[in-house]
Amino acid sequence: MTESCHIPEALLAALRDARHVCVLTGAGVSAESGVPTFREAQDGLWADHDPLQLATPEGFLSDPELVWSWYRWRRELVAEVEPNPAHLGLAELAELVPRLTLVTQNVDCLHQRAGSTDVIEFHGNLFADLCFDERRAVDCDADDPAPTCPSCGALVRPGVVWFGEAIPEDALDLSFAAASDCDVFLSVGTSSLVYPAAGLADIARQNGAVTIEINPEPSRNDFDFVLENKAGAAIPALVSSLSS
Ligand code: BV8
Fold first, then answer.
1. What is the pLDDT of residue 100?
2. How far is CA 156 from CA 12, 73, 76, 147, 176, in A?
3. Is 148 helix (H, G, I), strand (E, B) or coil?
């Protein structure tokens, strides 16, 4: 049974009037594709491990084989799933507004597979392999439990941003600019706990944007509109209402 989702007329009016929509997505957007979110206790990505052991440079250096096994498990999992109606709907939404900037905290590339273009990967990309020291893309043996850089011998790491690491400068600049410029800020499927990503909504609000959250468990109490629905229902409902 598809979940019913009421879209307030005032929310639709804000989107219809918008010159620029900025969207921030989190793990909740990929949940209906079958990708566990981070904080689900029973089967979340961090259920069995402390995220600060797995998603920090220190954790990686202390046990590269453990961290590689976690990321390779996630790569295999993501490679087997498909984008869901939330990803597909966001790609459609980009065709219905004059300008849409999509910023994602997700590293799974499902937005791109759904047809979204110019996706800003705020926390990097699960499928990239980087030299830990040189930070450039390298080819490495997918079966090596702790691959090393062919040119300098340093460890190779997944191309994601870990806790305590800076957001890539271009992603940060583009995202801050979009949050500052947008008329509508749409936060979808994120617990709004990780910064600076979670601060984008504040930047948008401070610059006069209408802010909307889509999350079955609302993350904060300062969004102008909150749709307490799954993204896989709310995004298609929003797109359908906007295009009718
Ligand atoms: C930085 C990539 C500074 C890796 C991720 C101490 C030391 C250092 C830094 C800090 C510190 N204390 C605080 C910080 C800042 C820190 C931070 O914010 N920590 C938190 C824990 C407090 N941030 C950082 O470290 C960032 N960098 O600050 O750098 C700096 C500056 C200059 C120079 C050097 C350093 C970097 C953070 C990036 C971490 N990397 N991911 C990987 O994926 O393995 S974070 C990772 O967790 C995700 O990318 C995402 O951002 C976050 C998880 O959040 P969500 O996506 O929201 O997922 P979650 O499971 O939490 O929630 C899911 C939501 O979906 C829920 O609300 C649920 O209700 C909803 N949902 C479920 N189903 C659905 C749904 N919604 C809709 N539909 C559904 N069907």
1. 98
2. 46, 17, 18, 5, 30
3. strand
CA separation for the pair 163, 167 (Å, rounded): 10
Q: Quote the ligand 1 centre to 37 CA distance (angstroms).
A: 11
With tokens 């609000």, the residue in question is 205
Q: What is the pLDDT of residues 169-191, one digit of tens each?
A: 999 999 999 999 999 999 999 99
Distances (CA, A) of 166 to 32, 56, 124: 29, 12, 11
CA 148 from centroid of its chain's CA atoms? 28
Residue for token pair 């089967």: 43
Interatomic CA distance for residues 153 and 138, integer angstroms:
11
Alpha carbon of 205 to ligand 1 centroid (Å): 20
Residues in the chain: 244
Give the Å distance between the CA of 242 and the centre of ligand 1: 30
- The residue whose CA has the least distance to atom 37 of ligand 1 is 163
Residue with the nearest Cα to atom 46 of ligand 1?
105
Of ligand 1's atoms, which has the minimum distance to the CA of residue 32? 80
The residue whose CA is least distant from atom 7 of ligand 1 is 164
Which residues are the active-site residues?
123
Cα separation, 196 vs 234, in Å, equals 25
